[in-house]
Specification:
Helix 1 crosses helix 2 and helix 3 runs parallel beside helix 4. It is built from five helices and 18 strands. The mean pLDDT is 93. It is of the alpha+beta class and 320 residues long. It has a single domain, classed as Deoxyribonuclease I, Chain A (4-Layer Sandwich), CATH 3.60.10.10.
């Protein structure tokens, strides 16, 4: 028997909730729920899920996500979520979630498990050697093993650092051009380093099963030809026959539809679904729901929907 299933990724753009701003959240739900329904996904990877407190001194929980999904098609889905590595509690912003119609049989988050932190020594400045900076990821990766049609499916959800300067203080001051330049370099180290860690984890999955069905999904903050995406694909910027290469399924649509963000008039593809060859063999269709997408550089004030378009891929698998 052959069964169709749909895998999607969507950056919800700071999904937050506050009891004092219930009307704002209601408008966000009114904008986001039709998008989630249109995805009609069986497995859904979400980014930028904020966590909130019911009471001032209470623990954080994924309240906004609960309220968004309440009563909808994803309400009964199994769920995996990230937590702050240092505390085990949800981070206040930018958590990841994987929702699945089918059983999630294993889950873990990955944060410097395969690529350790390291110190970077900035160049000397005015005959002084600045203190070394620790290079570490802003948030973990999220992994789930799912009992999907066709067999075990390995799903990795990630949100790599945006290419904005990291805070670096130099002798010329925090806002100096030197601070911005070095901060941009540190941001690149963080983004590329986390992509490397994700790829090293993918290598372990292939070590265990060369024919593993693997999907790497999320907001890479990088186009298909940039370093993070090339690292994740296996060192290439185009599909190859190399058995461990990952295929960029989001590129299998018409060029005029091939974007998930608009920035200052530029249409860019920052959100991706990469698949191992065993999974890509079951591919049937890719969609990017980018109709009416706003330009993030020209948008002022709170965003009711999202400035990212979701990507959804359909597969037809033999149920073994």
């Amino acid at each position: 028997m052959r069964e169709t299933f749909r895998l999607a990724t969507f950056n919800c753009e700071h999904l937050d909730w506050s009891a004092s701003k219930a009307d704002v959240f209601a408008r966000r739900c009114a904008a986001l729920r039709p998008v989630l329904d249109a995805l009609d996904a069986d497995i859904l990877c979400l980014q930028e899920i904020d966590a909130q407190k019911r009471h001032k001194h209470g623990p954080r929980d994924y309240l906004a996500l609960d309220y968004l999904l309440e009563g909808g098609r994803y309400a009964g889905f199994q769920r995996a979520v990230t937590r702050r590595p240092e505390t085990g509690a949800p981070a206040d912003v930018h958590n990841l979630a994987i929702l699945s119609r089918w059983p999630i049989i294993a889950t873990r988050q990955i944060h410097h498990d395969y690529a350790p932190r390291w110190d970077w020594s900035p160049p000397p400045e005015e005959d002084q050697q600045p203190s070394a900076l620790s290079i570490s990821w802003d948030r973990p990766l999220l992994y789930a093993a799912i009992a999907a049609p066709g067999g075990l499916l390995h799903v990795i959800n990630l949100h790599l650092r945006a290419p904005r300067p990291a805070p670096v203080v130099t002798a010329r001051g925090k806002g100096s051009s030197r601070s911005r330049i070095e901060g941009q370099f540190v941001a690149a180290l963080k983004r590329d380093g986390q992509a490397l860690e994700a790829r090293l984890f993918v290598e372990t999955l292939f070590d265990a099963d060369p024919a593993a069905r693997i999907a790497v999904c999320g907001d890479f903050n990088a186009d298909v030809y940039e370093t993070p995406t090339r690292l994740l694909r296996g060192g290439a910027d185009a599909d190859t026959d190399e058995p461990r290469a990952l295929v960029a399924l989001e590129t299998r649509i018409a060029p005029e539809r091939r974007h998930t963000v608009i920035h200052a008039g530029r249409h860019v593809l920052l959100d991706h679904i990469l698949a191992s060859s065993a999974l890509a063999a079951d591919w049937r269709e890719t969609q990017i729901l980018n109709d009416g997408l706003a330009d993030e550089a020209l948008t002022e004030g709170p965003v009711e929907g999202s400035l990212h378009a979701p990507v959804v891929v359909s597969f037809v698998a033999s149920d073994e």
